[in-house]
């Protein structure tokens, strides 16, 4: 998807509303009804949250407090 400045602001607002501090993405998604393009999800999350940190077999984005 196309990530605009408005998209980033909207997502940031939602994360703060729900007090989300961390976003985690596993290398492989299991149990999904449809095939998941993990690389596309990671690219989109990086566009929204900045560069992730690699921890074991997951990607981790820490969301700074407001």
From TrEMBL:
Source organism superkingdom: Bacteria
Protein name per UniProt: DUF2079 domain-containing protein
Organism placement in taxonomy: Bacteria, Bacillati, Actinomycetota, Actinomycetes, Micromonosporales
């Amino acid at each position: 998807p196309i990530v605009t400045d408005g998209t980033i602001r909207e997502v940031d607002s939602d994360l703060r509303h729900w007090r989300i501090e961390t976003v985690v993405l596993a290398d492989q998604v299991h149990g999904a009804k449809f095939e998941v393009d993990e690389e596309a999800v990671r690219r989109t999350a990086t566009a929204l949250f900045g560069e992730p940190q690699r921890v074991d077999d997951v990607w981790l984005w820490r969301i700074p407090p407001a």
